[in-house]
Automatic annotation (TrEMBL):
Pfam families: HAD_2. GO terms for biological process: DNA repair. It comes from Hydrocarboniphaga effusa AP103. It catalyses: 2-phosphoglycolate + H2O = glycolate + phosphate. This is phosphoglycolate phosphatase. GO terms for cellular component: cytosol. Pathway: Organic acid metabolism; glycolate biosynthesis; glycolate from 2-phosphoglycolate: step 1/1. Belongs to the HAD-like hydrolase superfamily. CbbY/CbbZ/Gph/YieH family. Residues 224-243 are annotated as: Disordered. Its EC number is 3.1.3.18. The lineage of its organism: Bacteria, Pseudomonadati, Pseudomonadota, Gammaproteobacteria, Nevskiales. Residues 234-243 have a biased composition (Basic and acidic residues). One of its GO terms (molecular function) is phosphoglycolate phosphatase activity. NCBIfam families: HAD-SF-IA-v1.
C-alpha cells in the first residue's frame, strides 16, 4: 500500500508540549516576564520553536508579532531557548502509544520512514535522540533543512525524490491542518491522529483524508489488514506532480 511513510514529529510521534511550554516559560522568566499558561503555549506549536517564541514574547511584552520577528535579539533568545531545552527535553515528553511498534512493523516491511517537522534541526534531533527514535528515519526534514517548510510541498517532494517513490505510494501522518494542507499541496494522502496539537481546533473539523485513533492503523494498512474505514480518503489528482 505504501513505499514511504512520512511522519510529523510533535503531537504525532512524541508528546512534547509540556517540555516545550516549560522551556518557553524558562526563557520568558529569564528576561523578566511572567510564565504563560501551558494551554496557550501548546496552541502555538507547529510552526517551529522560533515562531513559538515569537508568539510567546509578543504576548508577554505586548509588541506586535511583526516587530518581534524583525527584532535583532531573536538569535540570542533562541540560544537561551536552546540551553533551557537541552535540560527540559525528555523530562515530561513521551512517545505516544503504538508509535514504536508501528515504526518497527513498517521497517520490517521495507517501507521507508521519514520525519517532516517544522521544528528546527537541532531541536528535532534532540527530541528523536532523547526518545531513541533517531535510527528509524531517513531523512529527517526539519523546518530549516530546506528553503521552505510545511505546508509548502517542498519537504514532501524532497522525501519522495530521495526514496524514488510516487506521491500515490506515499503517506503523510500528522496531527494538524499544517499537515493536511501539506498533503494536499503535494498530492500525498494525509492521515491524522486526534491527540496532537492543532492550535486548539478539533482536527476532525479540518477535513483530513483519514482520522485514525493511533498509529496502529498505519501498521494494519501496511500489512494489508485495513478492513476499510468510515473515513473518506480524498481522490488524488492525476496531475499530482512527480518530483
Ligand atoms: O513547532 C514545532 O516545534 C513542531 O512542529 P511539528 O508539529 O511540525 O513537528
Amino acid at each position: 500500500m505504501f513505499d514511504l511513510v512520512m511522519f510529523d514529529l510533535d503531537g504525532t510521534l512524541v508528546d512534547t508540549a509540556t517540555d516545550i511550554a516549560n522551556t518557553a516559560n524558562d526563557v520568558l522568566e529569564s528576561i523578566g516576564y511572567a510564565p504563560l499558561p501551558h494551554a496557550q503555549l501548546r496552541n502555538w506549536i507547529g510552526h517551529g520553536s522560533r515562531e513559538l517564541m515569537v508568539h510567546a514574547y509578543s504576548h508577554a511584552s505586548g509588541a506586535s508579532l511583526d516587530a518581534v520577528r524583525r527584532c535583532a535579539g531573536g538569535d540570542s533568545l533562541m540560544e537561551v531557548f536552546s540551553r533551557f531545552h537541552a535540560q527540559r527535553c525528555g523530562q515530561h515528553s513521551r512517545v505516544f502509544p503504538q508509535v514504536r511498534e508501528t515504526l518497527q512493523i513498517l521497517l520490517d516491511l521495507g517501507i521507508g520512514l521519514a520525519v517532516l517537522t517544522n521544528k528546527e534541526t537541532r531541536f528535532a534531533r534532540l527530541v528523536l535522540e532523547r526518545h531513541q527514535l533517531q535510527d528509524f528515519f531517513d531523512p529527517v526534514i526539519a523546518g530549516d533543512t530546506l528553503t521552505a517548510r510545511k505546508p509548502d510541498p517542498l519537504p514532501v517532494m524532497h522525501c519522495l525524490r530521495e526514496h524514488g517513490v510516487e506521491p500515490r505510494r506515499a503517506l503523510l501522518v500528522g496531527d494538524s491542518t499544517i499537515d493536511i494542507i501539506t498533503g494536499r499541496n503535494s498530492g500525498v494522502r494525509c492521515w491524522v491522529v486526534p491527540y496532537g496539537y492543532n492550535g486548539g481546533v478539533p482536527i476532525r473539523d479540518c477535513a483530513p483524508d483519514r482520522l485514525i485513533d493511533d498509529l496502529s492503523s498505519v501498521a494494519r494498512a501496511a500489512q494489508g489488514c485495513d478492513a476499510g474505514s468510515t473515513d473518506s480518503p480524498i481522490q488524488h489528482e492525476e496531475t499530482a506532480s512527480w518530483p
